[in-house]
Amino acid sequence: MTADVPTLLLMIIVTSLVTSGALLVLNGNQRNDGLQYWAGGLLLSALAHALLLLYGRIPYLLAIVLGNALLSSALASFWLAVRRFHGLALHWARTLALLAAIALLMWLLQHQFASRVVIMGLILGLQAALVLWVLRQRALGAEQQRSRGALLLVCGLGLIVLTMLLRAGAALFFSLNIASILQSNLVQTLTFMVSFLATLVSSFGFVFMAKERADQANLRLASQDPLTGAANRRALMQALETELARASRQHTPLALLMVDIDHFKRVNDHYGHLAGDHVLRHIVGVLRQRLRASDVLGRYGGEEFMLLLPDTDLHGAAQLAEQLRQAVQAAPCEWQGQRIPFTVSIGVAASADTPADPSRTSEALLQAADQALYRAKDDGRNRVALA
Length: 387
Ligand SMILES: Nc1nc2c(ncn2[C@@H]2O[C@H](COP(=O)(O)OP(=O)(O)OP(=O)(O)O)[C@@H](O)[C@H]2O)c(=O)[nH]1
Known about the structure:
Layout: H1 5-27, H2 35-53, H3 60-85, H4 92-108, H5 113-138, H6 142-145, H7 148-173, H8 186-223, H9 233-250, E1 254-261, H10 264-271, H11 273-289, E2 296-301, E3 304-310, H12 314-330, E4 333-335, E5 338-340, E6 344-351, H13 362-378, E7 384-386
Parallel strand pairs: 6-7
Antiparallel strand pairs: 1-3, 1-6, 2-3, 4-5
Helix pairs in contact: 1-2, 1-8, 2-3, 3-4, 3-5, 5-7, 7-8, 10-11
Bound molecules: guanosine-5'-triphosphate.
């Protein structure tokens, strides 16, 4: 079964052009995730296939020498896109040297179709394998392991590697029985059919990867306090409900600490609001150093922070609260060469470990910790009070 090669080439050209245009519009000028390199690669691929399609009607130099160099530069552009996506250096000199070498080889092999097929098959296959190599190295990161986009991209690139190596092998060990790039046979049909599919699949994969990254960034923004980087109030409330449900299921205690900076207004009035902001970031750093990975720290509002301590009872939480109070006092904040001493008051509450306990609602726990905090303030500040 064979298909008309010029038709297949046209399909690749149109698909590459449309996808490239869509990517350029989608990307705008804002993002830096390599989409513009991928779009550039698709444009180069469209141009390369157009030149190959014109073989016989335009000079050999344009159709084959430039056509193959552009084909290789399309894959080089995909490689640059993936490197840019992962924040790796872009090796322009190596890329240009490869393209020059391909042009020279194609010129030297003017009358040897089979040799050209073998060499280009090997080069393009290896280039696609190089892109896979970058992805493999990065797959160790947590973000990539779960990425469905990366999986699609790997499938598309894998198809290119396989097809190009099979094409090179077919030309090397069997006769292709054709004399030009535009003639049809099984190998030609498979090559261009799979190239068409691989272009689509890998482009979808790369766009998904960019989208997944943007989604993650949005999720982070939606759950983070922009000033301190701690969880924001919305994320805190969500975590409180989740942890309460877990504590209830597993019959474990859950502690909640309300940490409030004492006389923070004076810090602002005396050192200025920027210094006040710096103190807020500083205290998050001090608190974080003493927490477990499962603890949740967030900014409840203004100069008030909330800490959720899973699997911790009132006694354990009170001990930690006292350590935190002392740590804050012992680590005054440095701001433009000045030391800004400050203290905190902490209210501690915990849900008991019996499922029927009425303190197992978020409102009850919050209210208890809040009341304890106000007692700590009333009793003179810089202290811990238990609910
Ligand atoms: N710099 C800065 N200040 C903030 C921010 N959010 C709230 N504040 C300030 O925090 C101060 C809170 O003041 P108060 O509620 O009177 O509390 P306090 O001065 O800490 O007194 P006590 O809590 O009673 O010890 C106000 O001056 C707010 O302007 C912020 O994001 N940055």
